[in-house]
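Provenance

Sequences were taken from public entries as deposited. Structures were produced by running a predictor on each sequence independently, with no templates supplied. The record for TetR/AcrR family transcriptional regulator from Flexivirga aerilata is shown for reference.
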Amino acid sequence: MHSRPRAGEIDSGADIRRRRMLDAAVQAFARGGYHGATTAEVARYAGVSQPRIIQVFGTKLELFLEAHRYAGDLMLEAFAANLRPPFDAQSVGRTYTDLVMRRPELSLMIFNAFTAADEPRIAQEARRLFLEIVQLLREQGGAGDQELSAFLARGMLINAALAMQLLGREGETDWAPFVFGLPASVAGDSAVVEDAH
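Predicted structure for TetR/AcrR family transcriptional regulator:
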């Protein structure tokens, strides 16, 4: 994990401003993907000028890669805080569900790296994060191959449902219990995921 100051470090004003721009980039790329979002949109969300975005990050590709690392770091931190052997798929799944319900743009940002994997550096970054998640779940969480496969498959289903805006659509089937694999009362208010669109 590399995009944020490590625990115990004091954030400088520059760190805070950079993180604000990364949050804006995650929002923009979650909505439009790599090919659809623009640096002008990121600048607008961040409340800065487009030249400032370019000055800090360079190219749109570099911005996407750093935003992906940033979103991935937040996800890894959420997992790491709740992992201990033996692997508890329900507990870890709830961690992911809670994160998705609070910040759906993180999952959409990560999912959109898969859809832009025709760009070799994005494909490489997507593989890096995937393998880091697998390593964390295996080594810190004690997950076996079958548990990993089932957990990651559920995560992919959640990401796909978010990308399709399947959840929280008024007057339509409530897909949250199916997608999250939880009772409706536990899945919570799926309408919150519409905030990312």
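Residues 13-36 form the longest helix (24 residues).
The chain has one domain: 13-196.
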